Task: inverse folding
């Protein structure tokens, strides 16, 4: 079967699951709401990150979206039915990854734009310039998409939404901060921290805005390769 109809079938699955629409909506709501709260009480040290502070919460919704989109295939024998229609497992997993990436990127970019407008309004005269703000909005969208893909790849390896979220959410909310406080520059290369460099006005580490996003992309790519290998090698 050609790639296009496989992608269309995977998009239909995502479009018809209300939990996935809820996760996409939560990306926008959580990021914009927490950013507005942070911007309203921010200092002038890093106005760009004050605008996009809520991405720390929005990325949790992004990993929930990527996790649920893939882990739903491993419940009730759904994957066996899918592979009966699309025997080429590599093509199916590539279509699944694309079906996760496209809406995550669209919602991520929308989130970045809305958050930028809300944050600039809250900061007033101390708001970042438009050029810097647009960079942050694009970085926000790319980071959220990459985190969704990272979660999707890990879900294909673990074959469980609960297991994937049990690993990633504590990592994002606890482990990353602890490692960051103890390890210095090493923490800059963690997937959640590297991608967020694009949301800072200035940066002191080895990574810049685009190289940080590239590191997060490498994490997501590695997770997808591992997920694709798992789908090919293990029984449905």
Result:
């Amino acid at each position: 079967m050609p790639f296009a109809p496989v992608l269309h079938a995977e998009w239909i699955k995502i479009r018809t699951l209300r939990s996935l629409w809820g996760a996409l909506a939560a990306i926008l709501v959580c990021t914009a709401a927490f950013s507005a709260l942070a911007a309203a009480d921010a200092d002038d040290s890093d106005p760009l990150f004050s605008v996009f502070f809520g991405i720390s919460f929005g990325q949790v919704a992004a990993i929930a979206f990527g996790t649920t989109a893939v882990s739903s295939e491993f419940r009730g024998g759904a994957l066996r039915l899918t592979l009966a229609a699309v025997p080429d497992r590599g093509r199916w997993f590539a279509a699944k990854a694309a079906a996760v990436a496209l809406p995550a990127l669209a919602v991520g970019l929308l989130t970045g734009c809305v958050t930028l407008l809300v944050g600039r309004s809250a900061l007033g005269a101390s708001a970042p310039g438009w050029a810097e703000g647009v960079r942050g909005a694009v970085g926000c969208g790319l980071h959220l998409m990459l985190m969704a893909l990272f979660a999707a790849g890990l879900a294909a390896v673990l074959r469980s939404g609960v297991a994937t979220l049990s690993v990633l959410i504590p990592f994002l909310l606890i482990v990353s901060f602890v490692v960051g406080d103890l390890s210095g520059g090493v923490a800059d290369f963690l997937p959640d921290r590297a991608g967020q460099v694009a949301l800072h006005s200035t940066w002191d580490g080895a990574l810049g805005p685009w190289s940080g996003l590239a590191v997060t992309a490498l994490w997501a790519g590695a997770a997808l390769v591992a997920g694709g290998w798992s789908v090919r090698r293990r029984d449905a």
